[in-house]
Structures
1.
Amino acid sequence: MRLPYLLLDVDGVLIPFPDADGTTPSTHARHDVVPTGRSADNPVAVWLDADHGRLLMDVVRSGLVTPVWCTSWRQDATTIIGPLLGLPPLPYVDLPRPQITTSHPGGYLWKRDHVDSWLGDVPAVWIDDDFTSLDHTWAAERTTRGMATLLVQPDPHIGLQAEHLAEARAWMERLPVRTGAPAAASGTEGA
Ligand SMILES: [Mg+2]
């Protein structure tokens, strides 16, 4: 059986955006990290919720889905963010680096065209804070064409909540078992 993918964003999902007064949720702890290409004496502060690690490990262990990072952190999600949450090295979508000034060139999420071809015909639940109505239309059309697609959209100032993963889990459990497809998650880039 070819497992569906669970695509997971980082900024606005695991790392909430600060409120207008600069505060972040009290559930989140600060970590200073050094992304690829940045000098060690110039770290970036990120805020993460250890509970997210526990919740995501339940997803990893479920065997119902293949979790994949889908974030502008790219490989750093695998090597930096995941380990801070106690997650094993998960694969990542090697997103392009378009020269854009908005996350919605064309009116929809900049990641989507790459993700659409990356997914092929595999069902997917995609958790991201930045979808537009055009992305929801895309998901509905993909589902109509037989590739079940669920978009889950946390509030970027609050981030991922348990109910988002419960919604994803319920969706996974409703999917019909797919047979006759390769067992390997081919096309996965990264680790
Ligand atoms: Mg985001």
2.
Amino acid sequence: MSIDKNKADQVDERPTREVSVTVNGKEITAEIEPRIKLSDFLRYHANLNGVRVGCEHGACGACTVSVNGDLIKSCLMYAVQTDGDEILTVEGLSESEDGSLHPVQEAFHESHALQCGFCTSGFVMSTYDLLTDESNPSREQTKKHLSSNICRCTGYQNIYEAVDRAAEKVSDDESITLEENN
Ligand code: FES
Ligand code: FES
């Protein structure tokens, strides 16, 4: 099979744009094709594999991250749209020097709120966002806020219990400030 050189050259000449973002407090600049989704940019350019890619059309919530403090499904944004923005991923929650987990992550661990774990980083980010706005959410508030995330394994009960446990941890420890990670 012969290769059409003109077509090969066209592929090499795809337009790119520079994008510069702050991810988990670190600046990342890259030259990328405008078609690259934020989820793929975070996974393959920033090596942040906690950003999961499940459905790729906004249904499962596995790719949830925070952009400038807003909860975003990163498969629905192009990376170039976030130029100049501040992004927080699940990795950014636990950047303490001793490697300890964030209280929301601890709560998921202690409540056995995961099985395969594919959905977990999305749920942790959504829970973090919920507790940032509402420190003591009712079960109804929790269900509503997490309704944009899908778990196929757990049946949700332990996830809801993890949210309650995370809320207790945050309210019991005045040194924890959720906004400090934004
Ligand atoms: S991968 Fe983004 S919502 Fe499912
Ligand atoms: S733990 Fe498997 S999808 Fe949620």
3.
Amino acid sequence: MDVADLNGDGVDDLLLGAYQCPRAATHAGAVFLVYGPITSSMYLADADAVLEGEVEMDHAGSSVDVGSDIDGDGLADAVIGAYYASDELDYAGAAYVVSGGEWTSGSLSGATAKLLGPFASARAGFSVAGLGDLHGDGYDDLAVGVLSGTSDGFDGGWGMSVVVPGPVAGTSYLVEAGEVLLGSKEAGSQGHTVSSAGDVDADGVPDLATASYQNDTGGTNAGATYLFLMGQLD
Ligand SMILES: [Ca+2]
Ligand SMILES: [Ca+2]
Ligand SMILES: [Ca+2]
Ligand SMILES: [Ca+2]
């Protein structure tokens, strides 16, 4: 769930993921958009727009982030994970970008962009985050968490995060569109959570925090948080 002004009317709007929603198909998932102001209880069946997962088991809405302007048009956009998507590889996962504006209900097949996970069981899109503009080009950028595996294939828990520069359009492979930030071998599931960290070193470049919930550095499955100072990675 996340909140930002997607339609540019000055009032924040609510985007809520329901990753097991069966509206389109079993566990296809969906995201529900409710334009603000929201002043009382309501049923999500009365949401202003619903974007459904494309096919059975996609788990669309496993993560959502709104607020970054990835296409640079001045409106906040949405990034939506579908971590069980199996387009060409089973459970490779995917992340969608949907441009802000007045949405109409339909399938996520109509998204602005779709970024496909890199290998079977990668489960890309378990987490997503808008990051702000890393390179000062006027387009906000995004990060997609990949729950498992190295770039060589599934190995049960390395995980990684991929930083993708905006704008994005059409369908592409996540690792070809972006820059891979790998966890260490001990850093189990480094892509479990990705989040904007603001600008913690005050160099003017937004930074990235990721969580590695099975990290063993401090003890078995003690977990760890990584902070990537993005201005120092270039
Ligand atoms: Ca609004
Ligand atoms: Ca936008
Ligand atoms: Ca940028
Ligand atoms: Ca920084």
4.
Amino acid sequence: MSFQVLTKSASKRLAMWTKFRSMSTVVGDMLKTDLANSRDALASSSKKGFEATKRQSVLQLARSLKSPRTDWTKEELREIYNTPLLELLHQAQLHHRDFHDPQEVQICTLLSIKTGGCTEDCKYCAQSSRYDTGLKAEKLIQLEDVVKAAVEAKENGATRFCMGAAWRDMKGRKSGIRKIGEMVKEVNKLGLETCVTLGMVDEEQAVTLKEAGLTAYNHNIDTSREHYPKVISTRTYDDRLQTIKNVQKSGLKACTGGILGLGETREDHIGFLFTLATMDSHPESLPINMLVPIRGTPMAEELTKKNSIKLEFDSVLRTVATARLVMPKSIIRLAAGRYTMKETEQFLCFMAGCNAIFSGKKMLTTMCNGWDEDKAMLEKWGLKPMKSFKKHSSNLSLV
Ligand code: SF4
């Protein structure tokens, strides 16, 4: 065998060996990639599994509570709010049944006792004197007109009568407070629960109203702390919280909620619920309003812009259901804007934990579903009006 032949055969073997090496490198790399992929997949699936367990545990924690908890974290609320929708609604409905009679709905009627001319700049409000909405400012109405409206509301099945005045606060309104105290006394004589909304009050004013026999004082936080400055500039979020504290300290029940559809994000819904769910004491009544844009207000104008955030119905349901799970004893009230909802949408809100409505001729300035229409709807669903003072006669956390 010549040297040349030897070299030829050696270089052939070398070429084969190199090819084999490169093939095994490719195979090895493929195996390595597969292994890495499987490891990632395993890690991601166990992460998902862990997240699912965590989600279940926050929901389960909420479901296991026998009395309201006030130290919720935003992360916990976010977790609940983002639960798959059917599961969220189902759990909220079960929780509702642990704390309330599922057949009962509180029917309230609202009356504007002093319309328009308010000095505040709430961007959505028809009653602010800063906007040209065509609303005529009026003086405080007479006692007999209030009594007449309350009698009519009672005859139509209302068990709570709410009176609203467009004022910034009650500073220097001694005679106003006295007159409203008279109204409260007269409405109470009819056996109706009473609620008023008069702007900011201090503790002394709240005590005066309590002594007149008032059941609840309405003062909303409107939205999340973060979104609030985009809606109102003439009073702070903390001013609002202070009024609610004053109300609760006086022994009055707080009726406190907000408005959805002010151009806020879903994260703002979580922030809004976080403020309510971490109050020293949850609101006895939690109104959920859906914005009815009023021509002439800055908010109505803003919402026509292309990039404005529109309220989606599933986020209304998520807000109601989360509220029901984390504030189980509160009466959740579908308030302004209900007339814009389809009956099926209202039904879903009840499934999510609502148990109160406003019914009558009008809200403060917007339309309201009428008594007859609501009676027919509730009858169809097998629901009945909640009796007055039922929720205040018992200290039991569970029904
Ligand atoms: S929402 Fe109330 S405080 Fe704000 S402008 Fe209207 S009436 Fe005044």
